[in-house]
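Most newcomers find our protein records easier to grasp once they have seen one. Each record describes a single protein and holds just a pair of labelled lines. A learned vocabulary of local backbone shapes supplies the integers on the structure line. Nothing more is needed to start thinking about how sequence determines fold. The record below serves as our worked example for the rest of this section.
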Amino acid sequence: MSPRSGTGSSTAARVIAVVADIMAFIIGLWILMYLLDANQANGLVEFVRDSARWLAGWSHDLFTFDEEWARVVAGYGLAAVVYLFIGHAVAGRVRRS
């Protein structure tokens, strides 16, 4: 076995983990912007909102809390946690193979 064996799987695992982290970061950034009442007409805020909505499309409005902020935090937060958990679990599995 050469000293470089496993390097490819290590790199792939790192890429998977970084992609999961970026996805969760975008969603978390949108939650923060929403809670801080960021200007929705701003281009950056609009981009983050649209990206987060696309990433969390499966969990958006999943919960029916009376308060909208609670729905945003729970729905988008769930997506961020799932992406982190699954992304890092897959990265760990790739790294071990």
